[in-house]
């Protein structure tokens, strides 16, 4: 049984691992991949001390930092269940494939599993995923050079997607069901003023159209009630995220949308389980906040482990 199992290898999980190690507790750090949604961030200009950087560069620096503390994350691990056992907790899952079952036992758990993209739930979405439809503009946007794209969403991730695609494509549409785009005022103004970007408001996406690949997006104009289409070769969905908490035990308190309820010290309602970053019910989703919560979770966890001795 290890002292602490940290589930999730991104900003909060890596920060927690570093602080556990600095306090003399070597953590076991596991996760599906390194970086999570952080790795998919485009331009990052609000992470203190870094000026302007990007998600890939941040991931590289996080990786180098944990290596300096002899922390080697176990990647390819998807945890599918978590339960209490005598003197701690047991986590079970698989590594790289469901056939390769893995299990871990730890005195304490830090959950830092982050979030995943929310789906639209409209006809054509599942059929055209990977055939012109993507949830990651940073990953797939460059594939649509000189083509027409549609970003669906109304917040900062949609604003960033629209701006990136406007620089790459022949034209980038951003459609939102809201009356106006929300988020960072500077981003919205840049998007509005970009010569190759068009914002379409009051637009409820109804269908993704195509044959072998996407050819258009259908939406309902909430003002007129008309069904309209935009011809496009690429669609990027940015309508929010869902917390990765499917594996936690039912006794662990969660918000209606699945986020783990944690206090200011990142403690949950179950002693010995801590949560940090976007997976929690903290209302703001920022890399800096995730890192800070990872640190808080680690320090709370160390205090908890010290009291067990």
Automatic annotation (TrEMBL):
Record Pfam families: Pyr_redox_2
Domain FAD/NAD(P)-binding: 4-293
Domain of life assignment: Bacteria
GO molecular function: oxidoreductase activity
Keyword terms: Flavoprotein, Oxidoreductase
Transmembrane feature ranges: none
InterPro entries for this protein: FAD/NAD-bd_sf (IPR036188), FAD/NAD-binding_dom (IPR023753), Ferredoxin-NADP_redctase_2 (IPR050097)
Name under which the protein is recorded: FAD/NAD(P)-binding domain-containing protein
């Amino acid at each position: 049984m290890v002292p602490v199992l940290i589930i999730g290898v991104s900003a909060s999980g890596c920060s927690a691992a570093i602080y556990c190690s600095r306090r003399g507790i070597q953590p076991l750090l596991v996760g599906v991949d390194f970086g999570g949604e952080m790795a998919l961030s485009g331009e990052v200009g609000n992470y203190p001390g870094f000026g302007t950087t990007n998600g890939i560069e941040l991931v590289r620096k996080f990786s180098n930092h944990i290596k300096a503390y002899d922390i080697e994350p176990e990647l390819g691990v998807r945890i599918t269940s978590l339960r209490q056992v005598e003197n701690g907790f047991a986590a079970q899952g698989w590594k790289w494939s469901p056939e390769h079952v893995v299990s871990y036992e730890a005195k304490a758990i830090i959950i830092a599993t982050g979030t995943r993209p929310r789906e639209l739930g409209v006809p054509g979405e599942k059929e055209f995923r990977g055939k012109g439809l993507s949830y990651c503009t940073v990953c797939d946007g460059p594939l649509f050079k000189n083509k027409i794209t549609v970003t669906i969403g109304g917040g900062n991730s949609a604003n960033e997607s629209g701006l990136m695609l406007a620089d790459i494509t022949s034209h980038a549409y951003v459609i939102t069901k809201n009356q106006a785009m929300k988020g960072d005022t500077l981003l919205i103004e840049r998007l509005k003023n970009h010569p190759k970007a068009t914002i379409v408001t009051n637009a409820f996406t109804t269908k993704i159209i195509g044959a072998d690949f996407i050819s258009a997006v259908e939406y309902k104009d909430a003002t007129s009630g008309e069904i309209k289409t935009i011809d496009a070769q690429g669609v990027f969905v940015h309508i929010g995220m869902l917390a990765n908490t499917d594996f936690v035990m039912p006794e662990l308190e969660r918000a209606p949308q699945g986020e783990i309820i944690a206090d200011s010290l990142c403690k949950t309602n179950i002693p010995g389980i801590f949560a940090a970053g976007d997976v929690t019910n903290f209302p703001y989703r920022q890399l800096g906040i995730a890192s800070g919560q990872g640190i808080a979770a680690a320090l709370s966890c160390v205090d908890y482990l010290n009291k067990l001795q």
